[in-house]
Amino acid sequence: MDRFWLVIKVVCLALIVILVVQNIEMVHVQLLGWTITMPMALLVVVIYVLGMVSGRGLMGVVRRLRHEDPKH
Protein backbone atom coordinates (compact mmCIF):
# COMPACT_ATOMS: atom_id res chain seq x y z
CA MET A 1 0.00 0.00 0.00
CA ASP A 2 2.94 2.34 0.64
CA ARG A 3 4.00 1.92 -2.99
CA PHE A 4 0.54 2.94 -4.14
CA TRP A 5 0.70 6.24 -2.22
CA LEU A 6 4.25 6.83 -3.46
CA VAL A 7 3.06 6.44 -7.06
CA ILE A 8 0.14 8.79 -6.42
CA LYS A 9 2.49 11.41 -4.92
CA VAL A 10 4.95 11.12 -7.81
CA VAL A 11 2.14 11.49 -10.37
CA CYS A 12 0.79 14.57 -8.55
CA LEU A 13 4.26 16.09 -8.41
CA ALA A 14 4.75 15.44 -12.12
CA LEU A 15 1.42 17.12 -12.91
CA ILE A 16 2.39 20.14 -10.82
CA VAL A 17 5.73 20.43 -12.62
CA ILE A 18 3.98 20.20 -16.00
CA LEU A 19 1.48 22.89 -14.89
CA VAL A 20 4.30 25.24 -13.89
CA VAL A 21 6.34 24.65 -17.06
CA GLN A 22 3.37 25.13 -19.39
CA ASN A 23 1.96 28.20 -17.59
CA ILE A 24 5.01 30.35 -16.98
CA GLU A 25 3.69 33.38 -18.93
CA MET A 26 2.93 36.48 -16.91
CA VAL A 27 -0.66 37.61 -16.36
CA HIS A 28 -2.09 40.82 -14.93
CA VAL A 29 -4.59 40.50 -12.08
CA GLN A 30 -6.67 43.51 -11.08
CA LEU A 31 -8.51 43.72 -7.77
CA LEU A 32 -9.94 46.86 -6.19
CA GLY A 33 -7.65 49.16 -8.13
CA TRP A 34 -4.49 47.14 -7.51
CA THR A 35 -2.73 45.43 -10.40
CA ILE A 36 -0.45 42.48 -9.76
CA THR A 37 1.66 40.76 -12.40
CA MET A 38 2.54 37.13 -11.73
CA PRO A 39 3.03 33.84 -13.56
CA MET A 40 -0.19 32.00 -14.35
CA ALA A 41 0.93 28.91 -12.41
CA LEU A 42 1.52 31.00 -9.28
CA LEU A 43 -1.94 32.55 -9.66
CA VAL A 44 -3.51 29.08 -9.81
CA VAL A 45 -1.64 28.01 -6.66
CA VAL A 46 -2.61 31.19 -4.79
CA ILE A 47 -6.28 30.77 -5.70
CA TYR A 48 -6.16 27.11 -4.66
CA VAL A 49 -4.64 27.95 -1.27
CA LEU A 50 -7.14 30.78 -0.69
CA GLY A 51 -9.95 28.34 -1.50
CA MET A 52 -8.61 25.81 1.01
CA VAL A 53 -8.30 28.43 3.75
CA SER A 54 -11.72 29.95 3.16
CA GLY A 55 -13.36 26.51 2.83
CA ARG A 56 -11.87 25.36 6.10
CA GLY A 57 -13.02 28.54 7.84
CA LEU A 58 -16.51 28.17 6.43
CA MET A 59 -16.72 24.54 7.55
CA GLY A 60 -15.63 25.59 11.04
CA VAL A 61 -18.48 28.09 11.21
CA VAL A 62 -20.96 25.50 9.94
CA ARG A 63 -19.81 22.95 12.55
CA ARG A 64 -20.00 25.52 15.33
CA LEU A 65 -23.53 26.53 14.32
CA ARG A 66 -24.61 22.91 14.05
CA HIS A 67 -23.35 22.01 17.55
CA GLU A 68 -24.75 25.04 19.39
CA ASP A 69 -27.62 24.36 21.74
CA PRO A 70 -30.69 26.36 20.82
CA LYS A 71 -31.60 28.71 23.68
CA HIS A 72 -35.30 29.43 23.69
Automatic annotation (TrEMBL):
Keywords: Membrane, Transmembrane, Transmembrane helix. The chain crosses the membrane at residues 6-24, 31-51. The keyword Membrane applies. This is Lipopolysaccharide assembly protein A domain-containing protein. It comes from Halomonas huangheensis.
